[in-house]
Amino acid sequence: MSSNSQIPGSIESEAQLDDFMSSPSQKLVRDLENVPGEIMILGVGGKMGPTLARMAKRAAPSKRIIAVARFTSAGLREELEEDGIDTIACDLLDPEAVKGLPRAENIIFMAGFKFGAQTDPGQTWAMNVQVPATVADTFRTSRIVAFSTGCVYPFATVREGGSTEDVPPNPPGEYAITCLGRERMFQHYSNVHGTPGVLFRLNYAIDLRYGVLHDIARNIVDDKPIDVSMGHVNIIWQGDACSQALRCLAHCSAPPMPINVSGPEILSVRWLAVELGKRLGKVPTIVGEEADRSWLTNTARASQLFGYPTVSALTMMDWVAGWVSSGRRSFGKPTKFEVRSGSY
Length: 344
Description:
With 344 residues, this protein is an alpha/beta fold. It contains 12 helices and 13 strands.
């Protein structure tokens, strides 16, 4: 991922996908050389965690990389250990278990609860607010990059260019409110302890096995309608998102700096559907009308710090279309990007 010449024309297997997605850039290698100490990833068991852990180890092979999760997915723990990553099984909802973890100098916090938030609000608040409070207090002497979401912002119009980090959060729906609660816990304990951090507000990482493009392509292939009422989105290649998260360790501050992370373009969902349809040889069924406002972020700050993402939207579309049309594996985890109520 260090140069466009290394970007493949297509991705034909999960092994190739995972290898390319976790390939570190030279800029990441240099940044981690200037960040002392080991790196611990809390909540590594999600869709992005394994990519980020492998990328960290490949970028800084001499550093100890510690992956923490409950490890309920079969084989993940063994796979990470084969890649030279130390693993610790831990339920982050258990404060005593969290306090028993090693005090790594660098923390990437990725834990959270989204799908099922509407039906289990207690679990949502515990995972998204209580756990961050425990982590922020326990790792008060660490640098903490805390994954968050662009959902903490109000909807924005395309002509506004998306919400910048200066826009006051005003999240719709209980899930997004708890995401703001997560941020507030890290801010509070940073104020109390002087802990440096970054609030990593991510919009729509793209893997070929899940994501906005995968959802649209899957619907086209299955002759299901595509709802364009959430008319526009930001997307970013998962490898680029993981790289920026790790590079944020070199930019931690107290109070924690918020940073919007996604692709620089504001993309029309209707346009994405039409373009994916061309690649798939099918005309998409489009329903709904674009609302005036969508969840959109302005990523100028991230582009200033890290440069533009290495994988373009058109390349991601080519890869996703090829992946889905070939019947390759899906995680079966829809993003529900079209949901406007904030209820998941």
